[in-house]
Design a protein that fits this description.
The chain is mainly α. It is 49% helix and 0% strand. The chain has helices at residues 2-15, 36-51, 60-63. The longest helix is centred in the middle third of the chain and has 16 residues, at 36-51. The radius of gyration is 13 Å and the shape is globular.
């Protein structure tokens, strides 16, 4: 759910930790998995957190080199 995805991010912010969320595209919009509408809402919410300076959205490769202060 949207609340679950937001909860993962909020917990990472609280813990000052990195977070990697992955989704296999073939599971999008299938029973038991996230819908396109929910994913779109999550991305919009994530963008607001990034614009507020609460998080940095990076690629998986960039996460390997991320530092707490950067």
């Amino acid at each position: 759910t949207l609340a679950q995805a937001q909860g993962y991010v909020t917990a990472a912010i609280t813990a000052e930790a990195g977070l990697c969320l992955m989704l296999h595209p073939s599971l999008l919009d299938t029973s038991g998995y996230i819908s396109t509408a929910t994913l779109t809402s999550f991305y919009a919410w994530l963008r607001t957190k990034e614009q507020a300076g609460d998080i940095q959205v990076v690629t998986l490769g960039q996460l390997n080199y991320a530092r707490k202060a950067s």
